[in-house]
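Re: beginner question about structure tokens

> Can someone show what the tokenized structure looks like for a real chain? I only ever see the sequence side.

Sure, here's an example I had lying around. Input first:
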Amino acid sequence: MKTKLLVIITIIMLSSIFSLFAQGFQPPTEGKAVVYFVRVTHYGLAISFEYFHQDKYIGVFKGQNYFRYECDPGEQLFWASTENKEFVTADLKAGGTYIVIVDVIMGAWKARVGLTPISVNDQKLFERAEKLINKKKPIVTSEAKIENMNKKLNDFITEKLEKYNNDWKNDKNFKHISADMAIPPDAL
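And the corresponding structure tokens:
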């Protein structure tokens, strides 16, 4: 009896772990929203971009990959950092799945980053993102690295958010993810 119970518990635990790292679109947890940051280009494969949600470091990846980020619905601020800092504002709805294309732009010293939110109406980009998401597992930054980087980059994050709030958000026209840009469930 104990052996059967142990086998059942093991199967349940493994299936939940594998679903966390599964390829393909995964719906958000109840009451949450999910954003896929997708880099569909082969350009600048060796260049890593670091990603932030408001005042928190959330991950890093390079090359033609993507990562899935789940968060609370409502008004959010996402940004990426390399030679430049690129921001995207968001108004996410609970249960919504959103895609942000990560653009690689030639820079002076290294590649610059761009963030372009898309909907299913952006057919070519959506199809490229969908193909990549269905083909590969998402990049996952370990919790230990996220915690370490949040400590290490605390002053940097504070400085960049001050610059964003005091200068950049008024001077630059950053892109926005509206609630209606959620990918319809039948398109996933």
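Each token stands for a local structural state, so reading them left to right follows the chain. The helical segments are 2-20, 123-135, 143-152, 154-171.
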